Amino acid sequence: MNYDIKDISLAPKGKKRIEWADNDMPVLQKIRERFQKEKSFAGKKMSLCLHITAETANLARTLKSGGADLVLCASNPLSTQDDVSASLVKDYKIPIFAIKGENEKTYYKHIKSAIKHNPVITMDDGADLVSTIHREYHQMAPQILASMEETTTGVIRLRAMEKDGALKFPVIAVNDAQTKYLFDNRYGTGQSTVDGIIRATDILIAGKNFVVAGYGWCGRGFAMRARGMGAIVIVTEVNPIRAIEAALDGFIIMPMTEAAKIGDLFCTLTGDIHILRKEHFRVMKDGAIICNSGHFNVEINIDDLKSISVEIRKNVRNFVDMYKLKNGKRIFLLGEGRLINLAAAEGHPASVMDMSFATQALVTEWVCKNKKKLEPKVYKVPENIEKWISEIKLGTMGLKIDKLTREQVDYLTRWDMGT
Ligand SMILES: NC(=O)c1ccc[n+]([C@@H]2O[C@H](COP(=O)([O-])OP(=O)(O)OC[C@H]3O[C@@H](n4cnc5c(N)ncnc54)[C@H](O)[C@@H]3O)[C@@H](O)[C@H]2O)c1
Fold it and tell me: For a designed S-S bond to 184, which of 109, 188, 351, 375 qualifies (C-beta 3.0 to 4.6 A apart)?
């Protein structure tokens, strides 16, 4: 078996992590049991470009149980859990091409290794796999039944490709399913970003000014959890609706030029570029901490930071680099500006990934059943998939809800009953 991982001897630790995560992924377990019997993916080659975490391992096991012949590469150079990769190779016989901390050249070499697997189905988190196929392996496009996209930034890139007429095979926007973004982006990113910041810095959050850039699903989750830990949360936005929402949720709103002067910690979660720049770094307090939890490492302009620094000290603590500016102030950058929740912590808790990856697994099955009807477009996740997952998840949480009565069903479909 061809693979490239850090160290196969890490497998026992990885296996324990995978099994631990699986305890909290009951919906995916149910799907795995069914796939095992039905073998809907028998012989289908799949290449998955995802964060290689314990939860992803359980998705990979699920697809393999359905007969898929799959390989995985990382969707971010810093998000791989090397022990999980080792276990996937050794215990589950799934080839992995990913090493935590790999440089950009190796990152793309690994993506190309996954492409050379010759997939008919791909899965992406940020669209790097799909865009590499479109750029360098476009002759493969006709064989690809569809690709599933896991995150907001990837969906934005794929919609841009669709608009330009550049998209060559169907894509399903898994991120946009309610069973994904409402829980993964909000509660997953909320908790794991706080976790990443604490693991990297061990700072006391209570009483600190936390500046949250972007009040989308991820920003909402992080702002809510940071406030829960006692931070004074300031939100910056470019969208007036989102800014009003943040204000009515009780957060302080101001432009970044103002927030930069008073923030103790800054976290970008926008999916946009260069949110923190030279003019912001220059006015920050001594000791300000900056990090990112948006998909790409472009939200903090690190070149700007370097250009105004007189001293740079790498790894003053794990995942912390110190930049000393000409004005004598120090800025601490976490996780090289990459997703802090995956760089310094373990990514989202398994319970939310249960729903995200149940969606991925069922959409993959749906693609195989509907391949003849699909065109090179960005598709939504079918509603019945979201409905099934949410009902099963609710049940596994031990929660019950009411059912509409016959009278209520009738009332909700009529227009002639008013006051
Ligand atoms: N850390 C993780 O594990 C994780 C998980 C899911 C998604 N993501 C990524 O996080 C990012 C945000 O995702 P989302 O689902 O919250 O997206 P979203 O579209 O719901 O929210 C993004 C918000 O950022 C705002 N914004 C854009 N430019 C801005 C600027 N210059 N200043 C301030 N605000 C700005 C937008 O108005 C919007 O409200 C994406 O890159 C996504 O891929 C990360």
Answer: 188
The torsion angle over the Cα atoms of residues 234, 239, 245 and 248, rounded to 10 degrees, is 60
| Whether the Cβ atoms of residue 185 and residue 150 lie closer than 8 Å to each other | no
381 contacts 359 by C-beta, under 8 angstroms: yes
User: Which phi and psi (to 5°) does residue 340 adopt?
Assistant: -70, -30
Instruction: Pick the residue whose CA is nearest to atom 1 on ligand 1.
Output: 293
Q: Which of 335, 317, 289 is nearest to 101 (CA)?
A: 335
Which tokens in the block code for residue 344? 């310094």
The DSSP call for residue 276 is B
Three-class SS state of 234: strand
Residues within 6 Å of ligand 1 by CB = 151-153, 181, 185, 189, 213-219, 236-239, 242, 269-272, 275, 293-295, 339, 341
Q: How far apart are CA 119 and CA 57, in angstroms?
A: 18
Residue 281, classed as helix, strand or coil, is helix
- Note the Cα 197 to chain centre separation in Å: 17
Query: In the numeric block, which tokens belong to residue 71?
Result: 């390989």
pLDDT tens readout for residues 141-198: 999 999 999 999 999 999 999 999 999 999 999 999 999 999 999 999 999 999 999 9
Q: Is the pTM of this model over 0.90?
A: yes
Q: Which atom of ligand 1 is nearest to the CA of 152?
A: 43
